[in-house]
Amino acid sequence: MKKCIYVFVALLITLPSCKEAPPGPTTTLGDFTPYDRNPMTLKGKIKNLEGRNYWAKEVNGKIEKGEIITRPERDSLNLANDFNIFFYENGCLKKTEYIGLNGQINYWDMLTENARLTKATWYYNGNPGIYWLFNYDDNGILLERERYRNEVDTLLSQQKITYYDNGLRKERFSYNHKGEMLSKAIWTWNDASQITGYQSFDASGNILNSSEIFYDENGNYSEAIFESPNLGIRKFEYKDHAFDEMGNLISIVVYRNDILLSIFELNIEYY
């Protein structure tokens, strides 16, 4: 195994069916990770990742990594959580840990069968809470998932998913236990199968949140705009890209509203 240090933009998903990943040795960050709205695929078979947010500072004309950004500070800036993500060797998501106050870890624990994720259980303060079950078609494509309350197995909600002709996710419809619609989410992509937009709406069609992702001429993240009624519009710019021998992005400096903000560091261990 080899270990490398990576730095990624903290965009706010492995998709529930591992068979949805593109051909070749790749690992996709998706549902039940911090990338649930804006998926990102990395090259290589990844065993685990450790993601951390740091303040960025300018010293003698150079951008350097400062102190780690605390959980309250991340919340105030609407940055992604610090996390640890673990994968099975076949690329299926195994576990996602979120780092909270004083190092407290809450996590998703995943079960798999025949290279498909079958159950995701949320553990808070070490105790199991809600869980999701997944339903696939004969080709292994995720069609719906159901959320239950642990121990009593009470159905809480359900989601149904549709796809574009190229297999990329198109829509996700959420319903309560009575089958009444709660919300709808829509994804858009470019010709290179890169996420370009995400929007979610409530049952009345009012927008809940949205994001637009932009890329430079080399296909690298360059800008993102996030909008919601509560948080308003947040514009992020991503500069100083660097890459490793695998062709994966290894560093990005994040600006918010044209002001130097942060560096997101990702420590990746490969199988």
What key attributes describe this structure?
single chain, 271 residues, mainly beta, Porin, two-stranded antiparallel sheet, 1 helix, 3% helix, 61% strand
CATH architecture classification: Beta Barrel
Report the mean per-residue pLDDT as an integer.
88
Strand arrangement, largest sheet? 4-6-7-8-9-10-11-12-13-14-15-16-17-18-19-20
Separate helix tally: 1
What is the distance, rounded to the nearest whole angstrom, between the alpha carbons of the first and last residues? 5 Å
What would you call the shape? globular
Let me know the number of strands: 20
Beta fraction of the residues? over 45%
Verbal overview:
The protein has 271 residues and is mainly β. The protein has a single domain (3-270), classed as Porin, CATH 2.40.160. The protein contains one helix and 20 strands. The protein has a 16-stranded antiparallel beta barrel with strand order 4-6-7-8-9-10-11-12-13-14-15-16-17-18-19-20. Strands 2-3 form a two-stranded antiparallel sheet. Strand 16 and strand 17 (221-228) form a beta hairpin. It is globular, with a radius of gyration of 18 Å. 28% of the residues are buried. Residues 2-23 have low confidence and may be disordered.
